[in-house]
Amino acid sequence: MVAMAAVAGTIDCGSPNTPSRSEAIFQVRACRGSRRAPDGEVFRILLRDNTVTAQARALVGAGGRRIVLGTLVPGNGGFNTPWNWHLDPDTVRFPEVAIELCDGCPGDVEANGGNWDAGTFCPWTSEIIAEQN
């Protein structure tokens, strides 16, 4: 009976108070090797979708570049300091390709008041460098 209680305590029965998604913040380096920022510019993304979070975790330390794409939102969102913009956590994805119009550097977005190509930002030179704890 005690064993059953212990097992039951570890099973998620989908109660309304149990979140279906978790949140994770990742540091992203973009524009490494540019004249303005040879070491790149770091920004942060908040992820809520478990599948996207798993993809980001697999990319940490992999050394490869991967496009980070999302919809821009004003303000740092509480996680993208020192920038005055952030990517909407529910729109962030890691596509293989993206149109050139949304490519750029975080500093470019900042210089444009947080605006970029119809509200979408996708630095082609992105690299997921760390998950914040």
Report what the structure shows:
With 133 residues, the chain is an alpha+beta fold. It has helices spanning 2-8, 50-59, 106-111; strands at 24-30, 41-47, 70-74, 85-87, 120-121, 127-132. Helices cover 17% and strands 23% of the residues. The longest helix has 10 residues, at 50-59. It has a 3-stranded antiparallel beta sheet with strand order 2-1-6. It has one domain (22-132).
Protein traits:
133 residues, alpha+beta, 3-stranded antiparallel sheet, 3 helices, disordered N terminus
**Strand adjacency order, main sheet:** 2-1-6
Could you report the average pLDDT, rounded to the nearest whole number? 83
Strand content: 15-25%
The CA-CA distance between the termini, in Å, is 37 Å
Largest sheet: 3 strands, antiparallel
In total, the number of domains comes to 1
What best-fitting shape do the alpha-carbon axes yield? globular
What is the tally of beta strands? 6
- Helices, by number, come to 3
> Pairing-aware structural class of the strands and helices?
alpha+beta
Helix coverage percent: 10-25%
Radius of gyration: 18 Å
Uncertain runs are 1-20
Which H/E pattern describes the elements?
HEEHEEHEE
